[in-house]
Design goal:
- Two copies of one chain form a homodimer.
- Helix content of chain A is about 35%, strand content about 15%.
- By secondary structure, chain A is of the alpha/beta class.
- Chain A folds into two domains: about 120 residues, NAD(P)-binding Rossmann-like Domain (Rossmann fold, 3-Layer(aba) Sandwich), CATH 3.40.50; about 190 residues, 3-Layer(aba) Sandwich (Rossmann fold).
- In chain A, helix 9 links the parallel strand 9 and strand 10.
- The longest helix of chain A is centred in the C-terminal third of the chain and has 15 residues.
- The first copy, chain A, starts with 7 loop residues before the first strand and ends with a helix.
Chain lengths: ~325, ~325
Amino acid sequence: MITLEQPFAIYLGNVQNPLDAKTGFGLAQWRPAECVAQIKRRTCSVDLGIPSMNIAQAQAAGAKTLIIGVAPSGGTLPHSWQEDVLTAIEAGLHVASGLHQRLNQIPELVKAAERSGSHLIDVRDTDRIFNVASGRKRSGKRILTVGTDCCVGKKYSALAIHRALVEDGVNVDFRASGQTGILINGAGIPIDAVISDFISGAAEELSPDNDADHWDVIEGQGAIYHPGYAAVTLGLLHGSQPDALVLCHDHGRNEIDEYPDFPIPSIEDHLQHYLILARLTNKNVRWAGICLNTSHVHPDDRQNVLDEYRRLYKMPCVDPLIDGVDDIIQQLHQY
Amino acid sequence: MITLEQPFAIYLGNVQNPLDAKTGFGLAQWRPAECVAQIKRRTCSVDLGIPSMNIAQAQAAGAKTLIIGVAPSGGTLPHSWQEDVLTAIEAGLHVASGLHQRLNQIPELVKAAERSGSHLIDVRDTDRIFNVASGRKRSGKRILTVGTDCCVGKKYSALAIHRALVEDGVNVDFRASGQTGILINGAGIPIDAVISDFISGAAEELSPDNDADHWDVIEGQGAIYHPGYAAVTLGLLHGSQPDALVLCHDHGRNEIDEYPDFPIPSIEDHLQHYLILARLTNKNVRWAGICLNTSHVHPDDRQNVLDEYRRLYKMPCVDPLIDGVDDIIQQLHQY
């Protein structure tokens, strides 16, 4: 588990494509009170809707940790960004990153951090050894978001469900399993960076024994019909031992993103298949609902589409961005 | 891919339980011509059936590489063994190990190896980054052994099938996916030690494009209903894109070893479930047969048991240790 000192300044470098700034947007959306500044180079065209500052200004505004809010392709820190990070370290800020390239493996940054006393936090670092999963049933209740593909709203849906349960006064924790989720939550385990033998063991550790009325809302990863990531999905599913599953789907997406030879099987198939696999470690698992991304649906058709899902699959179906997740929360109160 | 200089001396330390010497037995059985010696401490009660020597004698007999033939519980090298390994290094032998603890992380051994020019080969080391699986169909033919549990004969069956195909003059390679298989084969990828995100990508790399008539015989890992290792099994299955599957089962084993709460589902269930999962990356996958461990069956009942499997599942069923794998090879010639 990692801990990030608050509040944060979000570093965006000179990013042009909002999709590359997923981490920054996630932080600005889910931890607005802790995000005091965005720090951009002159050519950056992305805006998180929070005050733009330089490093000195952000520090004056109280920022304690600079978070790299961008995932550049290749997962490495461009040289110009590295200079900005160095400036932040020299000013005494901690720096957190979810990149494949580790801050702690860049000697210049490590030396500067030693001098200033800054912490360099690599969220994807999991050099530690986890246990092989025991399969032992744990106390407390768990809900896991699963998907028909990557980037269909598993993290967003889990965060929305967590927030709604908090507002209902439920005893609940969000459990982050990916780098952006970990940066938003300040804690978690980057499941996709764990050694394969220990993936379900790491997932067991992510949601430990808890009070009987406690909910863990676990952020899902990958998709069970994804030719690259299905193993990550299955390992997280088995170790999580979910009581409730939520299926996340992007309505209108017909094939796995960037895998044109891999059509996405039907919703019905997913509802059956995930349940069969999840029953290995929790016989009582059931569906709590569907979170549908309707951003590709014409606004006039949206309600019909949602109604059709509800009718066909006999469970709540919401677009969490538009409808909220109350219908799913209703289900959870029956567990 | 790793390369081991031949011939080998097998180090057994003071091991008492033959099951702990699985790697040593595998090497003695599958590479007898290369195993010139076993090296044991005085209290070792295990015997591989090859000449016992000390390090100087083994070297005089031609040994170039000392292979740690034991997996001590905890995966670390006991101090007394470490002294023996040091002696071997000082004598100029290379040392290979599949332990979790890396030879290359024991400073005393590393220093000695620098002086003597010995190579320290950690078979489980996979610090390198693999690609995420592409799902692209590769040329050539592939057979993968899969199991109903760990330790049911997946490695043995794959090696037996490989040997039979070699004897038939078929263009074939054995593809090792675990540490013992890699030590036997001299090459391979330790799939269970790969970062989860890249497991199917590593499996794709293990059996690359090949001639249309070429077979890769891929050593399976774990089991699809294993609460700890199913993710490893699925990742290897998807990346291997097998044309043929062989199910390995220990007749009479009713629950996952060391997981008494996890009964092993029926053979029929396994035959269906593996096929459904494998079809994601190869629509044409089919069963080539069942390799049954009949060591817990009374010799008088053995033939009846095998006949019953053949009748029920309508495919070859052999105990590869007793019957050989000819019936399965017959099937492969029809691919």
